């Protein structure tokens, strides 16, 4: 047993304490999981281990306020893909989905699989593994089970509204009828009990392309979307009275309705302010000015007139989404492609039947070309930056990253389509190899437009081609402005979801890089926005700050490596044993040199340590 005063001494660091104040050069000493001393010239002889952080930054552990790690944490509690990026606290139970009520399996109903599969684009095989790890059946047992777990990052939890409805009404009733008065009272009671247990609040969802995945309900949306305004008002009164948080997404089908629901934040209208964290603010490629409406509405609600407290979560990088064929969250937005995605992941025959069904093809062509060709209101709205659909369908925006023909890798689908057309007109030199020539020969000569080209790709390769497209924050032109906006908060990283389509584990670091490009003062502000500010908003004590006696969750960052790092060039698709499946992962090795949780090093010199996942480090955070 150590006889030294401190376990670890970090010397000569540039310290951002999370307050937003300018950084100071100092040393930090850690003892028994707490910050034991801070100052200049702390003696090396008093510490078991000394880390020289000359030229490095030290910040509080970063918070990820929007994740779907609910499933992974019970399979691999250390969450190694999180801590390598300097994140030490994660929030789960977002978007009305979670596992707080247990597996909720009844007969052949499997709500976790049914709700998560298409909303978060997680294969059923992965979800079934996660559901098998569930050993609890109440919110109290769920919160308590973290106490005996070798948890890596701290975890804060929302009550997921879809699961609350299922718990009280059953899955079938939750998507087919209104709750009875007795059921509403029961929901209020369960939610009130959960607030006693320390849950952060409640999450709901309003996005129109969030569907169930199991038959016979593949044409139904998740349960939260069947709730009336009156139901939400009653449940959120429980959250409001406890000064907890409502996490939600907008009802984008109807902006007037969305703003009506968002008005629930108002203390003037509803007696007491409701803290509201909503998705999301970014510069959408097809609707570059829509963020003005959301931020303007938040400013109105947060004014003295309405006495609200809401922000929109801002992604710290460009919103880049990968697709396996057409299987991705983007194409759930179109009715025809949602039908295709609703087929089981391995149901190639079912997808081919649709792709060759003339009625479906007609629907697909209508969806694909809607607002893009011809005259009419839809085209005018698109030109004005108010399109009916936000999913890009321009082949020039889609870049092969996992192409079925090697020559196509890194090219846009438009590049390939153009060459196919020239090849079919007799320019044989457009085929650069035998493989490409064979591929070109398999394309039909009856393709009238890019809709036919996409159909041809899907029929030939199914999910066997990957491409990415930037949906928002293209070029990151306005991203820093959003991250710093007073009516926004860095978040919307979706870590743990969309496992083959997105990878934003590193979004916090990208936010810091954007700040660093501007000034050190901006870095100090950004550190606050990633640490103490969200901790205060979500009611989390003892995280997000560096001060004497605080839990020693902290990160050491190499600013030179940060400046030279490109997040877009460091996302990979890799096989992960945990899931027995491929996953999109982020890599920022060298940027974060050390991550500490509760005084223990969990990431050091490019690798996780033995401490991670072998003993309890983080904890379930109970809202203050």
TrEMBL record:
InterPro entries reported in the protein's UniProt record: Amidohydro_3, Metal-dep_hydrolase_composite, Metal_Hydrolase, Metallo-dep_Hydrolases_sf
Pfam families from the UniProt entry: Amidohydro_3 (PF07969)
Top-level division of the source organism's lineage: Bacteria
Taxonomic placement: Bacteria, Pseudomonadati, Pseudomonadota, Gammaproteobacteria, Cellvibrionales
Entry GO MF terms: hydrolase activity, acting on carbon-nitrogen (but not peptide) bonds, in cyclic amides
Ranges of residues in domain Amidohydrolase: 49-212, 522-602
Gene Ontology cellular-component annotations: cytosol
The species this protein was found in: Halioglobus japonicus
Protein name: Aminoacylase
